[in-house]
Design goal:
With about 130 residues, this protein is an alpha+beta fold. It contains three helices and eight strands; from the N terminus they run H-H-E-E-H-E-E-E-E-E-E. It has helices at about 5-15, 20-25, 45-55, and strands spanning about 25-35, 40, 60-65, 70, 75-85, 90-105, 105-115, 120-125. Strands 1, 2, 3, 4, 5, 6, 7 and 8 form an eight-stranded mixed beta sheet that branches. The termini are far apart.
Length: about 130
């Protein structure tokens, strides 16, 4: 079960923009991530590689501070909003819930939920 301060440190790392380092520093080696109902990705190295590739396709990723964070034992829910600016200059927004299971002070399992019909809708970029 994570301490609230550890969850807040994780959130600060993600909002700070270094998503790959956040995976390195806050996920177990055997961690998994799952997008909606897709097959989970497994293993911290694969998770970091996937994140690095996704970010490399962008000009900029802006992570808003979460709208809500719930901590209940080893379960954490974060309501994230991401603005991704592509190489074409168009910014898209993703509004998602991340449901995490923590083992001690690291994430072992995470699943993202978002509406694929409205995911990554175009928005005005954050200055």
């Amino acid at each position: 079960m994570p301490e609230r301060s550890r969850v807040e440190d994780f959130i600060a790392a993600v909002v700070g923009g270094d998503h790959v380092a956040a995976i390195r520093d806050f996920y177990w080696e055997d961690a998994s991530m799952q997008e909606n109902m897709a097959e989970p990705r497994r293993g911290r190295d694969l998770l970091m590689e996937h994140e690095a590739r996704a970010l490399a396709r962008l000009e900029r990723m802006h992570t808003h501070p979460p709208r809500a964070v719930l901590v209940d034992g080893d379960r954490v829910v974060v309501h994230w909003t991401f603005d991704a600016t592509g190489k074409d200059g168009v910014t898209h927004r993703l509004d998602e819930l991340a449901i995490q299971r923590w083992r001690g002070d690291r994430i072992v399992e995470e699943r993202f939920f978002y509406d694929t019909a409205t995911a990554w809708r175009p928005v005005e970029p954050v200055p």
